[in-house]
Amino acid sequence: MTDEQTHDEHTHYDIALIGSGSANSFPGPEFADRRIVQIDRGVGPDHVFGGTCLNVGCIPTKMFVHTANLAHVPAESGRFGLTEQLRHVDWRAIRDRIFGRIDPITAGGEAYRRDHEDNSNLTLIRGTATFTGPKTLSVLDRDGGTRTITADDIILGAGSRPILPPIDGLEDAEPHTSDTIMRIEELPASLAILGSGVIAVEMAHVFASLGVEVTLIARSEQVLRAADADVSARITQILGDRLTLHTRLSTTSVHRTDEGVQLRGQRDGEEIVVRAEELLVATGRRPNSDLLDVAAAGIDTTADGRVLVDAHQRVLGGGEVLEGMWALGDLSSPHQLKHVANHEQRIVRHNLAHPEQLRRSDTMPVPSGVFTHPQIAWVGMDEAAARADGRDVKVAVQEYASIAYGWAMEDTTGFAKIIADAETTEILGAHIIGPEATTLIQLLIQAMSTGQTARDIATTQYWIHPAMPELVENALLQLVD
User: Fold this and answer.
1) pTM, whole model, 2 decimals?
2) Active site residues
3) Cα separation of 301 and 289, whole Å?
4) Collapsing DSSP states into helix, strand and coil, what is residue 328?
């Protein structure tokens, strides 16, 4: 419904919903009798509707990754007796095809919330909300007007945004982040990527596959430190062979030059200089709790800005539940994963509708997927965490090269690693690096989520030969011998 409220008016609603990512799935028939206001600041430089995942996150990045996978095929075809070549990359055609599909969905989603009869009980406000007190919001509209809004229940789904580390000259150098890099006008000849996490290694794959000279700069010894140590070591080795990789490099300054950007850093007392046409900063994201000024509402936050919630997604203040306050997604979750945000949204929806039957959001193991090349996926504890937990563990490692399909692909780098309780064979964690890792891991996610052990699933079903899931089967068999 179009917002027609007079500016500076105090309006009360049953539900105030902040955000348009996973929070946008909250309104539904079960809340048709409640007055809802949805307040959305938007994401990216243009503050578009629809949240991070749709506009600047998982959807466009995976569309670029798929294109990159196709572009990378010629680089590996020679050893199979093929002579494929990547003759031309039309960056604008790639970019425009991707956002030519996404942008209409974004616009349509906003129009649906604003105008469709399904949302006759919902008022959409495009603007920035900040707390001025408990359950009281001041909203700055896009046209500069302000209003005060209160609500019986407030649902915080305001997400997160990229951050720039405090490096001399970095902000003045106008680097790209994940919010902007996918919409650049021209493909640069060279790209420096500052960071070594998920976004950094995915973008490294995309641009390297499209012919860009990529330099990846990591402060740590290995990239993707959130992964199991063996997986992190393997992807570090692979990327080191594929592109220019600087590890243990602490960047001290960044400057924009006539030729592009220049980064200076220190490694073991030695100054290192990196030059590139463009710079992508992918050193992390921060929750938007500061933009909401959650402290004014008495809301507790962590040191890195996450809103604190209990297992039912109820917001905490002073260590106690703040009634009628809920949070979900990147604003409150340490995982910053879309599937986690979606699950938390469903929990909030149920709990608000059924306060006498509260459900927990922390009952399932959380999986992660990284769509670089090769793919990486994991769920549960890594080996170090399992051993530190005091468990008597058994670890199985199965190379792709040792299964028939992996042998056919001549894969020499990929493997699956499963950590289990040595006695019960309870699966404590699983980690895969290699082709279709994000698909193969689902077999183990399901087992862990339903309480099935390695012994339960290793020999009680057929595993198709010579299909890829034999990677998981053979690893499980090591645990039950």
Assistant:
1) 0.95
2) 465
3) 8
4) coil
Q: Which residues contact 45 (CB under 8 A, 6 or more apart)?
A: 179, 180
Q: Which residues does 477 contact at the CB level (< 8 Å), separation at least 6?
A: 458, 459
Check residue 143 and give its pLDDT: 85
3-class DSSP state for residue 156? strand
Cis peptide preceding 165, ω within 30 of 0: no
Whether the Cβ atoms of residue 56 and residue 162 lie closer than 8 Å to each other:
no
- Does the pLDDT value for residue 4 go beyond 50? no
Q: Which residues are bridge partners to 251 per DSSP? A: 265
Is the preceding peptide bond at 466 cis, omega within 30 degrees of 0? Answer: yes
Query: What does the block give as tokens for 346?
Result: 């469903």
Tokens of residue 419, six digits: 């950590």
Strands 10-18 and 36-40, by their bridges, are parallel
Q: Is the pLDDT at 453 greater than 50, yes or no?
A: yes
pLDDT tens digits, residue range 297-330?
999 999 999 999 999 999 999 999 999 999 999 9
HEC profile of 191-221: EEEECCCHHHHHHHHHHHHCCCEEEEECCCC
Q: Is 425's pLDDT higher than 90?
A: yes
Query: Which two three-digit tokens encode residue 107?
Result: 């616009």
Residues 178-206: tens digit of each pLDDT = 999 999 999 999 999 999 999 999 999 99
What distance in Å separates the CA atoms of residue 417 and residue 420, rounded to the nearest whole number?
10
Cα angle vertex 54, ends 176, 89, to 5°? 55
